[in-house]
From TrEMBL:
Keywords: Acyltransferase, Transferase
Protein name per its UniProtKB record: GNAT family N-acetyltransferase
Residues in N-acetyltransferase domain copies: 1-149
Record carries keyword Ribosomal protein: no
Domain of life: Bacteria
PANTHER family: AMINOALKYLPHOSPHONATE N-ACETYLTRANSFERASE-RELATED-RELATED (PTHR43877)
Molecular function, one GO term: acyltransferase activity, transferring groups other than amino-acyl groups
Pfam families, per the entry: Acetyltransf_1
The UniProt record lists the keyword Cell inner membrane: no
InterPro entries named in the record: Acyl_CoA_acyltransferase, Bact_Acetyltransf, GNAT_dom
Length: 151
C-alpha cells in the first residue's frame, strides 16, 4: 500500500510538489508507518480502507473517515484515492470510491488544483467544488462535496 501511495504521488504530483519530497528515500517507510497505524490503531477503527488489484498486484488504494472539517454536513470524507497511472480508465478508481463511500452518500474530499483528471473523475461521481481551498505540501487544494442523493 505504501509503495502504491508513493508511486501515485510521484506520477500525479511531479511538477506540483518538490522533487526532494517525492524522491526522498524515506518516503516509502513514512507511508508504511502511515498505513500500519491506519490499519492497526483503534483510533482509526471507523475508517474505511480498500485496495484494488489486478492479476495479483496492487494497483490502487483508498481511505475515508468521518469528516474533520468544522463545517461538515456530510458523513464521510475521502482522504486517499490513488490508482497507478497504468490502471487509469480500468474502473479501479470507481470501485475504490464505492468501497469507501457508499453511492449517493454525502461526502467531501480535497483535491489538488490543478489536477483536471481527478477533478473530472470526482465530478462524474457527483462531487462539485464548494469554493473552499487550502494549501498542503505546497499544493493548492480545492474542496469538493457531494450531497446525499436521498436528502
Amino acid at each position: 500500500m505504501a509503495r502504491i501511495h508513493v508511486a501515485s504521488w510521484q506520477e500525479t504530483y511531479r511538477g506540483l510538489m518538490s522533487d526532494e519530497m517525492l524522491d526522498d528515500p524515506e518516503f516509502v517507510s513514512t507511508r508504511e508507518r502511515f498505513w500500519t497505524v491506519g490499519l492497526t490503531d483503534e483510533r482509526f477503527a471507523h475508517h474505511r480502507i480498500a485496495v484494488a488489484e489486478y492479476e495479483g498486484e496492487l494497483i490502487g488504494i483508498a481511505e475515508s473517515a468521518p469528516p474533520t472539517d468544522a463545517d461538515a454536513t456530510w458523513s464521510q470524507q475521502l482522504n486517499v484515492l490513488y490508482v497507478l497511472a497504468s490502471a487509469h480508465g480500468s474502473g479501479a478508481g470507481a470501485g475504490l470510491l464505492d468501497a469507501v463511500i457508499s453511492q449517493g452518500e454525502a461526502a467531501a474530499l480535497w483535491v489538488a488544483d490543478p489536477n483536471p483528471r481527478a477533478q473530472a473523475f470526482y465530478r462524474k461521481h457527483g462531487f462539485v467544488p464548494d469554493g473552499l481551498f487550502k494549501e498542503e505540501y505546497g499544493i493548492k487544494e480545492i474542496r469538493m462535496t457531494r450531497r446525499d442523493v436521498d436528502a
